[in-house]
Amino acid sequence: MAFSAAEQAAMRRALELAATPGVPLGPNPRVGCVLLDEHGATIATGYHRGAGTPHAEADALTNAGDRARGATAVVTLEPCNHHGRTGPCAEALVEAGVRRVVFAEPDPNPEASGGAATLRAAGVDVEAGLFAAESGLLNRFWAFGLAHGRPFVTWKFATTLDGRSAAADGTSRWVSSPAARHDTHRLRALCDVMLVGTNTIAVDDPLLTVRDEHDLPLAHQPLRVVMGERDLDPGRRVFNDDAASLHLRTRDPKFALVELFDLGRRHVFLEGGPTLAAAFLRAGLVDEIVAYVAPMLLGAGRSAVADLGITTIADAFRPRVTDITVLEGDAPNVRLTLAPGED
Ligand code: AOF
Ligand code: ZN
């Protein structure tokens, strides 16, 4: 595989465009496109702005107009081959007279894939694989959704050294350090659903919005979802501010996730209490665990997770540690990231 220096630089730019802040996470992939002339100079750029809007290639072709003739298109995803919400990009590239297409990764969507073959059949030179891992990372929750028909679930919790998330009297504020709480806000801002149980809303009355270190609201707010059959006081804070919230009246994790998937959501941040966490773990519906461990002992109080039905050590649930990070401060907290499952 031979990619010119100009194509490599263009793919880096296309990846940046794909990740433009403010592009909704939603049900579509993030895609960027750069059109180069025969000298490797940029003719035009484009990117996808969310479901229902033009694809990255179409956006770049519109911006290029007649200048696209003879161009090389550098795209982060294989150009689509289907009539979906918009027309097939493979055909649009051929019609515009594009001579070469370089893309990062093949389209994992069976409804839309096949663009590379269409382009080749039309005599376009096609090369794949440039920065494929980077594009894959950008769209990993989207690809997960395609493969599983539900959003990816990150379960986050904060705990003391002895596995407590609240003291015996129910107080739980400030188990984790300011640095750990700031880190949590950063992770919340990267997901598109914040999920808690009705009990958390009834007891703690949290806002669940993403705020920066000065407590200012950020541009992207995940949908705040409360799950459970119990009726809740409509005066709770989560239902009374500008950001969107939703009460899903079910206790079935699978059902809740499919509902959220149908709403176009692809990454759930599970911040519920021990009961909700146990329900998701028992159902095998946790894909990533983020645990903040604080140098604190309580000796009594609420466990971070409720009964998992495990009675003997041989049956222990043993997720694989993928990252350990120390969050510095007066009382340094440790953030452990873990992956359940075999792979
Ligand atoms: C995008 N943006 O820039 C590219 C996509 O529903 P549609 O018609 O928008 O088609 C969505 C599919 O098109 C998507 O799942 C992916 O397979 C393919 N390529 N999609 O949203 C883009 N290039
Ligand atoms: Zn397309």
UniProtKB/TrEMBL annotation:
Reactions listed under catalytic activity: 2,5-diamino-6-hydroxy-4-(5-phosphoribosylamino)-pyrimidine + H2O + H(+) = 5-amino-6-(5-phospho-D-ribosylamino)uracil + NH4(+); 5-amino-6-(5-phospho-D-ribitylamino)uracil + NADP(+) = 5-amino-6-(5-phospho-D-ribosylamino)uracil + NADPH + H(+)
Keyword presence, NADP: yes
EC number, UniProt record: 3.5.4.26, 1.1.1.193
Pathway linked to the protein: Cofactor biosynthesis; riboflavin biosynthesis; 5-amino-6-(D-ribitylamino)uracil from GTP: step 3/4; Cofactor biosynthesis; riboflavin biosynthesis; 5-amino-6-(D-ribitylamino)uracil from GTP: step 2/4
CMP/dCMP-type deaminase domain location: 5-116
SUPFAM superfamilies xref list: Cytidine deaminase-like (SSF53927), Dihydrofolate reductase-like (SSF53597)
Cofactor binding description: Binds 1 zinc ion.
InterPro entries xref list: APOBEC/CMP_deaminase_Zn-bd, CMP_dCMP_dom, Cytidine_deaminase-like, DHFR-like_dom_sf, Eubact_RibD, RibDG_C, Riboflavin_Biosynth_HTPR
Stated role: Converts 2,5-diamino-6-(ribosylamino)-4(3h)-pyrimidinone 5'-phosphate into 5-amino-6-(ribosylamino)-2,4(1h,3h)-pyrimidinedione 5'-phosphate.
Designated name of the protein: Riboflavin biosynthesis protein RibD
Annotated gene: ribD
